[in-house]
Amino acid sequence: MRTKIDLRLKTCLFVSAIAICGLSTTSQANEASIPMFALSYTLENDYITAGEADIRLSKKEDHYQFLLETKPTGMFRLSKKGKIREIAELPSLQPPFLSSRYTYTNFGDEDRSYTSMFNRTTGEATVIRNAQTSRIAIDTNTVDRLSMTLALMSQLHQHPNVQSFDIDTMDSGGKQTFSFVSKGQEMLDTKLGRLAATRVDRQRVNSNRNTVTWLATVDPNAPPVPVLIEQYRRGKLTVRLKIDKFSLLR
To answer: Hey, what's the torsion of the CAs at 157, 146, 197, 241, to 10 degrees?
Structure first.
């Protein structure tokens, strides 16, 4: 049975085969916020080391910034292929991680770059791409593509035995629903040591792409973080991110 998650966790979750339904407003408010952190990865393309990647959640002047940056090396650096930066601006680190602004920059294909600005009051997102502006209606708890990672981390932290759930998100093309299925724990050898990681498969509706993420607790003061990420297209591995470093930020 698939559970529809609206990031307020109002619907049913299956935890250890026991249904927990209709969490109250009080329990939602008590959900722990995510601490600021930094992650570093080795980036592989078709099993070849192609560069490095960084994920960072930090405090800015009047908001929090969630950043993902991939930096190719060697021949990949010359073509700028794979050089990508994603930035989400968040008013708080409390679930459901609703950003006010999201920017995607693809340095190898700038036609794919765009910026989304979210007006949560009116339920509308303004998307700017190639000097063209469009407006898209959004649901109350629609998240951007990058903040979806925070939602996933929080979900596993609060409900480690959840079996499946959906998250509503959007990119430049409009609203989408991503389905997540937990495959249980696997032992992984990483640069941080041997870790018990939960494998979560992500699939977009009507898409030939899917992503597999392994999340593990590497610090007792932080929720599970992605320690291994693999992206597939038509069943073929295209990109892999393997964790190198983790640190909490103050």
So the answer is: -160
What would you report as the CA-atom Rg of the chain, rounded to the nearest whole angstrom?
A: 18
CA dihedral 239, 242, 244, 246 (to 10 degrees): 100
Q: Which of 168, 167, 166, 113 is nearest to 138 (CA)?
A: 168
Cβ distance 85 to 76 under 8 Å? Answer: no
Backbone torsions φ then ψ of 73, nearest 5 degrees: -125, 170
Domain that holds residue 215: 3-248
Tokens representing 95 are 């679930």
Overall number of domains in the chain = 1
Is 54 in contact with 42 (CB distance < 8 Å)?
Answer: no
The phi, psi pair for 169, rounded to 5°, reads -145, 180
Indicate if the pLDDT at residue 4 is higher than 50. no
36's enclosing H/E stretch is none
In the predicted structure, residue 199 carries a pLDDT above the cut 90: yes
Helix (H) / strand (E) element for 240: namely strand 236-248
- Alpha helices, DSSP H only, in the chain? 25-29, 74-79, 147-158
- CA 148 to chain CA mean position, Å: 4
Evaluate the omega torsion of the peptide bond into residue 95 and state whether it is cis, within 30 degrees of 0. Answer: no
Which pTM does this prediction carry? 0.83
The pLDDT, as a whole number, for residue 48 is 65
Using an 8 Å Cβ cutoff, are 30 and 191 in contact?
no
- Distance CA(195)–CA(190), nearest Å, equals 7
